[in-house]
Amino acid sequence: MMASIARTAALPLLLLLAALVPFSNNDFYVALGVSLLMYATLATAWGVFAGPTKYISLATAAFFGVGAYTVGLFYEKIPMLLLYPLAAIIGAVLAAFVGLTTLRIQGMYFTIFTFGLAELIRQFMTWYQRNVSGSVGVYILTDISARQIYWSLLVLLALTLLGSWLLSRSRWGLALLMIGEDELAARHSGVRTTAVKVIALAVTSAVIAVVGAIVAPRWTYLDPNIAFNPTLSFMRAVIALLGGMQRFWGPLAGAIPLVILFDQLNARYPTSYTLILGLLFMVIVFVLPDGILGLLPKLQRLRAPAAPAVTPAPGAGTLSEPVTPAAPARQASPGVDGTSGVVTTAPATGTTLLAVRDLRKTFGGIVAVDGLSFEIREGEVFGIIGPNGSGKTTVLNLISGVYEPDRGEIVFLGRPITGKPPEEIARLGIARTFQLVRIYPALTCLDHVIPAALFGGHARTLMEARDHAVHILEELGMGAFLHVPAGQLNFIDQKRLELARALALRPKLLLLDEWLAGLNPSEMVIGMELIESLRGRGMTIVLIEHLMQAVRRLCDRCIVMSFGQKIAEGVPEDVLRDPEVVRVYLGEADDA
Ligand code: ADP
Ligand code: MG
Question: I need a surface site. Which of 29, 356, 549, 587 has the fewest CB within 10 A?
């Protein structure tokens, strides 16, 4: 309660204090204050758009310069008070034009375009002044004092902060956030993304133009190099980064230390100033990717007492629930169901390939995997089954290095691999496919498979990798598609392609996440035969599967998961008959 009052009161108090600075009669403070307010306003306005949408514009200098020139060109003909709205309108119209033409291009192209735009306007103004008005710059001779500029900026900053705060609580703010996360999903939710982006860009650009208009009289003489100084765009980006892009206080937190620092640097090292700016930029990106304010949650976490340890002792098989004890040794003949008649199995070596001990992973309040232990032996097909959301994919993500477990250990070939990154685990010989197929639609099938052969460390040359890739694709029956873009494949072929990519690593362990899901009945037969042939060659496979027919036919052993825990383990025949399994899972399974 007190904290929230303090927080609400902090900003008005700060602004009120800031309003008193000019009364100090210290010109140095006023000048520094003008810089500070200018950058804080620029960074706030910029952050309103760039923060949530992640559209990084480098055109701040363009809009700023447009505002400054509005004053420079018209201050003798139009009253000052009208020049501010005029600058805002010109800035907004220009931004809307830029937005309509460029916001369809995303990411880096937008950034490059805006940078080019700033440069284009600067060159245009230079040309215009030389050839049309006959001078390089304009004089701005007004009786506006530094103090007036200071107060005007303070009002604008207050308004911008207010706007930013209101926006973050409005559906517009939500729309901008959605655009940043997933533009297509936003559109499917009914957000008019183009309109939202163009309007947001126009409004922030209008604010930036007004900053330019307010500050212009400070220079007395204005030329394109001053008005459209690209350093401005970078400074503003550094400030926003230092403060923390997506936070309300971020721009202020970044502006205060940096403006003071730059002021000092500029005074002492005027020539190496931009060099230091560039270095600082890199240091910030490295050390403080979330900005100063991004540190706060981390500090709070440090101060908070450590979470109490849940069930201490690990050790294999600590679960009390399992109804069926783990099969003591590899089953000689896997579950043969009437449909397949296949009894091919890899030689039973009995060596443990992968051991998972007391694994736990939470997401916020959700315990996705809870005290899970199991062992996978060389050459077996090991099933993981369970209802949706029971943690199967998370187990795969933990093994393959997508997430680090909160607790527990993963041992592969006798060596702990817990917490290793995905690329390293892939190189060690664990390959995977994804529950939702992940292919690059524009790349050919060959180009999907070659990198895995190359970076997996098996092929020494590109030619070797290519031969290897061709071989694997042919083996999987995809020889006709070597040069076909993956986006043109039908679903089963996309799945086969993912399998080919996984196999190109020459894995010792293959993780298949619902690889058969979504196939039609005849494709299913092909798919199952494919997995069987891999098993026949001695490949160790972890199979997450919903189709009981496939589990019975393909798996040597399986575990059943429910709410992140193992509730049964053993050969499919036994496990699928277990009353507990029937109750929590098979009641809802598709073909039990
Ligand atoms: P399954 O593959 O068995 O359907 P998952 O492993 O995908 O289950 O999910 C287990 C639980 O963990 C679910 O409640 C899911 O919502 C949650 N979960 C999985 N991944 C994440 C994530 N990246 N962030 C938050 N929650 C997650
Ligand atoms: Mg899943």
Answer: 587
In DSSP notation, 433-492 reads --SS----TTSBHHHHHHHHHHHTT--SSHHHHHHHHHHHHHHTT-GGGTTSBGGGS-HH
**Within a domain: residue 90?**
yes
Of the listed ranges 64-78, 326-340, 441-455, the least confidently predicted one is: 326-340
Distance from the alpha carbon of residue 392 to the mean position of ligand 2, in angstroms: 5
How many structural domains compose the chain? 1
345 lines ligand 1 (CB under 6 A): no
Which protein residue's CA is at the shortest distance from atom 25 of ligand 1? 363
| Ligand 1 touching residue 390 (CB < 6 A) | yes
* pTM for this model (two decimals): 0.63
Ligand 1 atom index nearest CA of 544: 2
Mean pLDDT over residues 82-90, rounded?
96
Please state, in angstroms and rounded to a whole number, the distance separating the CA atoms of residues 243 and 253: 5
What stretch of H or E contains 374? strand 366-377
Residue 202, pLDDT > 90, answer: yes
Q: Which residues contact 120 (CB under 8 A, 6 or more apart)?
A: none
- If one residue of 369, 393, 396, 546 were mutated to test the ligand 1 pocket, choosing by the most ligand atoms within 8 A of its CB, it would be 393
* Residue with CA at minimum distance from ligand 1 atom 17: 368
* Smallest CA separation from ligand 1 atom 5, residue: 391
- The answer to whether the CB of 397 is under 6 A from ligand 1 is no
Residue 430 lies in a domain: no
Classify residue 260: in a domain, yes or no: no
Nearest CA to ligand 1 atom 7: 393
Q: Which of 449, 410, 413 is nearest to 429 (CA)?
A: 413
| Token pair 């690889």: residue | 515
Does residue 387 sit within a domain? no
pLDDT digits (tens, 9 = 90+) for 266-321: 888 888 877 887 888 788 777 877 777 777 777 776 666 544 444 333 333 333 33
Residue 324: is its pLDDT beyond 90?
no
pLDDT at 317: 34
pLDDT tens, position by position, 380-428: 999 999 999 999 999 999 999 999 999 999 999 999 999 899 888 988 9
- Which atom in ligand 1 lies closest to the alpha carbon of residue 403? 23
Instruction: Look at ligand 1, atom 10, and give the residue with the nearest C-alpha.
Output: 391
Answer with the residue of higher pLDDT: 101 or 566.
566
- Note down the domain range covering 105: 26-228
Q: How far is the CA of 419 from the centre of ligand 2 (A)?
A: 21
